[in-house]
Amino acid sequence: TTERSLVLIKPDAVSRGLLGEILSRFEGKGLVIEALELRTMDAELADRHYAEHVGKAFYPPLKEFMTSGPLAAVVLSGDEVIDVVRAMIGATDGRKAAAGTIRGDLSLSNRENLVHASDSPDSAKRELALWFPAL
Ligand code: CMP
């Protein structure tokens, strides 16, 4: 079934000049870019986007990082796109992510891990409404 996923190409990816490479992997896979916008997360959006993590020990530095500069907010669509994109980005920790995944190939960090993607249909629905309310 065709679905949509909300993907954030994080500030580390933009500042490292990896935006093109990461978008290229998604395009090469055959996923469709339905929306794409450079945005800088503010504190309020960070708290809403990461509501389930507010209060965790890793949240303050995560928030600092995610609001530190522009990121690319992307809506991708395709057959089973939510699971397909999760597989393409790999495990959260770039040091442990499998080679061949975006994080496995390009990140060495548990926090600055280049990409966020919706992890379920429910989170996709919530995150798409948060980032692209008009879509
Ligand atoms: P993301 O997929 O955006 O979801 C939550 C983010 O928190 C995660 O990617 C990482 O950037 C960050 N994160 C998760 N766990 C940790 C951790 N243990 N230490 C530091 N950052 C983390």
UniProtKB/TrEMBL annotation:
Belongs to the NDK family. Homotetramer. Its EC number is 2.7.4.6. SUPFAM superfamilies: Nucleoside diphosphate kinase, NDK. Residues 2-135 form the Nucleoside diphosphate kinase-like domain. CDD domains: NDPk_I. It is found in: Cytoplasm. One of its GO terms (molecular function) is kinase activity. InterPro entries: NDK-like_dom, NDK-like_dom_sf, Nucleoside_diP_kinase, Nucleoside_diP_kinase_AS. It holds the Pfam family NDK. It catalyses: a ribonucleoside 5'-diphosphate + ATP = a ribonucleoside 5'-triphosphate + ADP; a 2'-deoxyribonucleoside 5'-diphosphate + ATP = a 2'-deoxyribonucleoside 5'-triphosphate + ADP. This is Nucleoside diphosphate kinase. The active site is at H116. Major role in the synthesis of nucleoside triphosphates other than ATP. The ATP gamma phosphate is transferred to the NDP beta phosphate via a ping-pong mechanism, using a phosphorylated active-site intermediate. Its cofactor is Mg(2+). It is an enzyme of class 2 (transferase).
